[in-house]
Amino acid sequence: MKLTQSHRRLRLFVSTSVIAMALGTGAALAGMEEARRWIDSEFQPSTLSKDDQLKEMEWFVNAAKPFAGMEINVVSETITTHEYEAKTLAKAFSEITGIKLTHDLIQEGDVVEKIQTQMQSGRNIYDAWVNDSDLIGTHFRYKQAVALDDWMAGEGKDVTSPTLDINDFIGKSFTTAPDGKMYQLPDQQFANVYWFRYDWFQRPDLKEKFKAKYGYDLGVPVNWSAYEDIAEFFTNDVKEIDGVKVYGHMDYGKKDPSLGWRFTDAWLSMAGNGDKGIPNGLPVDEWGIRMEGCRPVGSSVERGGDTNGPAAVYSITKYLDWMKKYAPPQANGMNFSESGPVPAQGNVAQQIFWYTAFTADMVKPGLPVVNQDGTPKWRMAPSPHGSYWKEGMKLGYQDAGSWTLLKSTPVERRKAAWLYAQFVTSKTVSLKKSHVGLTFIRESDIWDKSFTERAPKLGGLIEFYRSPARVQWTPTGNNVPDYPKLAQLWWQNIGDAASGAKTPQEAMNSLAAAQDEVLGRLERANVQGECGPKLNPKTSAEEWFKKAEASGNIAPQRKLANEKPKGETVDYDTLIKSWPANPPKRS
After folding, report:
1. Sorted alphabetically, which Gene3D superfamilies does this protein's record hold (predicted)?
2. Which residue has the higher pLDDT, 21 or 196?
3. pLDDT (tens digit per residue) in 109-143
4. Is residue 24 part of a domain?
5. Domain end point (choices 473, 490, 509)
6. Residue 29: pLDDT band by 50, 70, 90 thresholds?
7. Would you state the pLDDT for residue 20?
8. One domain, residues 439 and 506
């Protein structure tokens, strides 16, 4: 849950509160006629038939009767998907159930602050929260969030939909803690992927020049070496296209909170930091935090972590080199929200770190990167990996904003809010919601024929979510015991490297030490029980390198003699054709 995050990031300084309730609609008017009207007018397309939608809504109507007239308050950050929920689905829910639902939209930093306040004070601020699954390690350890498996089988059984179909949620593993229980219900997801100008990459003259210089084909980079070669080629060889100066790379570097998620969103694992493991490396994750059992035991290499190891330092070094050499000059002074619109202006060849939440804004008619027929001139593809990366590691980040119930919320209010959380993720509405926000949560939506038809105008989004590569894109995981406390350390320390105040090694040494200090404070406070941090004693980096080699694990890795192996690319159309054409079978 980057302390402010994603498409949200384009609205970094905007804080909006939207109150959506059934104005003038009381419990007496709620029911199946309202459900039928919404199904006919709004909830299309759906993976369910209209008859099955009505059956699902009938369950909601009956389950909500004990709560009719209650005023329930929920909150999320501001992105397109949540705007649709707040302005449209909350109104529908109120009219259908008779529960007066207020869905507030605020900056994600405010969501984090307020949920922390409720957890610490016990005062009920909101009845349900959409917060990133990045907080799974926090919620699991502090025991302030309701374990949903226990809830659905116990106190919340009478308000748990028989058609919820938990196994249809693609982010289920992201919200499951080391105890095997699910603590959050995914509401929206998006990934960071590789973005590139497909039309430029297809030009015979550019393909010929690239191969003559580098000895391999211009295409989707498989490794960072190829990404760097392509960035060099467009910036310094091609230089201009149609009279416009072009750049081979885009990024941002302002010392700002938004710089933090640029790295906590799996940048280090893309380089090869951490261990193998999906959804997160074990025992060392992509933040460089080592976990033994369920206990975090250190971030620094000297404690068995990898936050300041050679792979992490390499990731920062490449980030800085590429921005300096291949990005527009103003990039280093930009934050996330300022840099986000730049590729759509038509002078950037590729971007290694691009969020699919931008898709809707990148396909608008009239943009320099959109053809007259509405198809994009660009495509998205799986991200390339760094030289330390090994098969079996995660390869990118996936944001998963997820519904969370807190124990401090009175049970009856929690039940009514749980009905709304299920409503906005139900099969009756989720396909339409996916078309609005393009933030998929259900396998059944991804494979619906409506997205097969729409796919050519979405630049590879559907192909990516239907591909086997998708499973390597995952959120922050269980190793991070207090996301709010630790996440703020990243932008401050890496910002020093971006400004030139520290070398990449110095910056990562400082970050690793700061993380260990927080882990140590949590250990001394003993507020997280048997799965709270317990720091390893400091030894030498050499000792931990040897332990990793002897154990068969990866992290921490020694510095490679050659951090730039030969570039490798793959043809985009060949890549797409290699992915399966049929949805996976579910048990």
Report:
1. Periplasmic binding protein-like II
2. 196
3. 889 889 999 999 999 999 999 999 999 999 999 99
4. no
5. 473
6. low
7. 40
8. no
Judge if 297 and 336 occupy the same domain: yes
Q: Is the dihedral of CA 508, 514, 517, 521 positive or negative?
A: negative
Buried residues in 136-152 as b, exposed as e (16+ CB within 10 A):
bbbbbbbebbbbbeebb
Helix (H, G, I), strand (E, B) or coil at 354: strand
What is the distance between the alpha carbons of residues 555 and 477, in angstroms, rounded to a whole number? Answer: 17
Is 585 inside any structural domain?
no
Kindly indicate the confidence band of residue 191, based on its pLDDT and cuts at 50, 70 and 90.
very high
DSSP class of 539: -
Confidence bin at 360 (pLDDT 50/70/90): confident
Report whether 352 contacts 539 (CB < 8 A).
no
- Pair (106, 146) in one structural domain: yes
- Structure tokens belonging to residue 429: 């509405």
Per-residue pLDDT tens over the stretch 76-90: 999 899 999 999 999
**Structurally, how many domains does the chain consist of?**
2
> In degrees, to the nearest 5, what angle opens at C-alpha 355 toward C-alphas 182 and 459?
115
**Cα dihedral angle (81, 82, 88, 94), rounded to 10 degrees?**
140
- For the CA atoms of 506, 511, 513, 516, the dihedral, rounded to the nearest 10 degrees, stands at -160
pLDDT over 90 percentage in the chain: 87
Q: What is the C-alpha to C-alpha distance for residues 431 and 453, in angstroms, rounded to an integer?
A: 14
Residue among 269, 289, 272, 265 at smallest CA distance from 558: 272
**Does 1 fall in a domain?**
no
- Tokens 């603590």 belong to residue: 183
Residue 19 lies in a domain: no
Convert the pLDDT of each residue in 538-569 to its tens digit. 999 999 999 999 999 999 999 999 999 999 99
Residues 145/404, Cβ–Cβ less than 8 Å: yes
List Cβ neighbours of 92 (8 Å cut-off, separation of 6 or more).
34, 38, 42, 43, 429
Residues 391 and 532 occupy one common structural domain: yes
Residues 6+ apart with CB under 8 A from 476: 132, 133, 134, 136, 137, 264, 265, 280, 285, 286, 287, 397, 483
Residue 54's beta-bridge partner residues? none
- Shared domain check, 367 and 275: yes
Statement: residue 153 has pLDDT above 80? yes
**Ramachandran area for residue 143 (φ above 0: left; ψ -120 to 50: alpha; else beta):** left
Q: Report the first-to-last Cα separation within the chain, whole angstroms.
A: 31
Domain that holds residue 360: 190-398+475-576
Give per-residue burial for 33-48: e unless 16+ CB within 10 Å, then b. Answer: ebbeebbeeebeebbb
Q: Which of 444, 473, 502 is the last residue of a domain?
A: 473
For 377, counting Cβ atoms within 10 Å of its Cβ (0-12 exposed, 13-18 middle, 19+ buried), the class is: middle
Tell me the CA distances in angstroms from 508 to 297, 305, 315, 518, 519, one per residue in order: 18, 12, 10, 15, 16
Identify the CATH number of the domain in which residue 126 sits. 3.40.190.10
The pair of three-digit structure tokens given for residue 190, joined into one six-digit string:
């998006």
Neighbours of 98 (CB within 10 A): 23
pLDDT at residue 585, rounded to an integer: 57
Q: pLDDT value at position 1? A: 42
| Cβ atoms within 10 Å of 209's Cβ, excluding its own | 15
